[in-house]
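cron nightly-structures :: item 1 of 1
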Amino acid sequence: MATPDLSIIVPTLNAAGELSRCLGAVTAAPEEGFSLEMIVVDGGSRADTVGTARVLGARVVSSPPGRGLQLAVGAQAAGGHWLLFLHADTILESGWTRAVADFMGAEENARRAAYFRFALDDEALAARRLERMVAWRCRLLALPYGDQGLLLSQDFYHELGGFLPLPLMEDVALARRIGRRRFSALDVRAVTGAARYRRGGYVRRPLRNLGCLALYFMNCPPRLIARLYEL
């Protein structure tokens, strides 16, 4: 079997419906001259997540639950020269294959990483405000979160030490090791489910997230931050 150019890695836990839309957008995209494989790292779903993944053509790898650990397991199983990490509730919009192909094809990006533009599947004005806040965070702090996707070469990923098996902030930990000067923003939207913001509130939830980030920068143990995050 030929080595794929790109491995798309998606961690899941009871996410059949979300995964169907996520991988459906991947498989529906036009080809751009690169081969890919899809790897779903399941953390012990009770629902039909695994069956959905296989129907859509993904290879399923099992892992103990925990997004950081699942992402690390997926990277270990990946055969692609490049890795694209996605959340199961994130849908890449039209044009992502062209943007990814252009990034992978540029020699200077061998030791750089890229992320997509954050968007929410909600027409509320509060969603647009949050999108602008995320864009500001990425420009000022160079801290894209996992729901914006992360694209980087396999060699660069391992050089950085990969995802750590953290209960929370695994994306921030890796972004800090990548560093501001080695990030690129792709001008394609990654549309993420807004259900958690509608439940938790467009003010309260971002404030809680900001508080968790501040605690992380103050070296609070991620396991303690995770408890706050779940409140």
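cron nightly-structures :: done
The longest helix spans residues 125-141.
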